Amino acid sequence: MRNKESFSEMFGVNDKYNKFSVQNIAKMNLKHRLFQCFLFVLFIILLYIFFYAIDPPHFELSLPKKEDIGRHSLLREESTILQRNDILVRVVGFLEESCEVFRSSYTLLFCHNILTNDMPIMEPCFMDCRDKQFYYDLDIEKTENKETIICNEIYGELQSKKTRIKNIVVRGVRNLELEQFSNIPNSSLESCIFQHGIEIASGNWKA
Fold first, then answer.
1. CB-count burial class (<10 Å; 0-12, 13-18, 19+) for 146
2. What is the CATH number of the domain that holds 110?
3. What is the average per-residue pLDDT within 137-166?
4. Fewer CB within 10 Å, N or C, the chain?
5. Within a 13 Å sphere around the CA of 113, how many CA atoms are in the beta-carbon half?
6. Rounded to a whole number, what is the distance in angstroms from the first to the last CA of the chain?
7. Among the three residues 16, 34, 53, which one is the final residue of a domain in this structure?
8. Conformational region of residue 118, where left means phi above 0, alpha means psi within -120 to 50, and beta covers everything else
9. Which residue stretches of the chain are H helix?
10. pLDDT tens-digit profile of 4-25?
């Protein structure tokens, strides 16, 4: 009696070759599962980094007080705000919200009034709460006109009456676009506010 033919004999497929193919398929399935496990672990790691390692700092507002004036020796040599657009957006947005709340109490709010992890942001910037313009690293250039004005200035509980040059040119960058600008204040009040703000932000103001 003739033995039953195997599947490989009936269709001319070599048993050895067929066995090799099955092993290959098994190996491919194993590699696929390992790759899926790798993607899952990578996903978990990325979630951890996003929610814990790159947790955005919490901002709090510290209202102007006389102790702020002595801190300006801590002004940073390198700007974090200018190098990180995400931080710039958060700082400007936070100052806008704070100005909205304290608009009737403060004309200017400064970057050092923002606390992150209980530490002030020591950079030379401020916001004019009247029009919510953000200014960074402003400088003053005096003109040939030496007309003077009297400025009544307040920071926190500190008050000072200062004699200043009326006609000045203000230069620096402003707003989220960090637009370079130069401006001549159009009134004595504007001149006083700019000079006061620049000195406070740079740490040169004294009561």
1. exposed
2. 3.90.45.10
3. 94
4. N
5. 25
6. 118
7. 53
8. left
9. 7-10, 15-48, 80-83, 85-101, 188-202
10. 555 444 544 455 445 556 566 6
Q: Which residues of 78-90 are buried (b: 16+ CB within 10 A; e: fewer)?
A: ebebeeeeebbeb
Same domain, 48 and 143: no
Pair 136, 124: CB distance under 8 Å? yes
Phi-psi region of 12 (alpha: psi -120 to 50; beta: other; left: phi over 0): left
Name the token pair of 11.
């269709």
Q: Which two tokens stand for residue 158?
A: 């500190």
Residue 49, CA atoms < 13 Å, CB-side half-sphere? 6
Q: Do 142 and 48 sit in the same domain of this protein?
A: no
What one-character DSSP code corresponds to residue 167? S
Matching residue, tokens 């923002």: 114
Residue range of the domain that includes 40: 7-53
Looking at the structure, do residues 39 and 83 belong to the same domain, yes or no? no
Structural domains of the chain, count: 2
Q: List the structure tokens of 192.
A: 């006083």
Instruction: List, for residues 55-103, the tens digit of each pLDDT value.
Output: 456 889 999 998 888 776 555 556 777 788 888 999 999 999 999 999 8
The reported pTM is 0.70
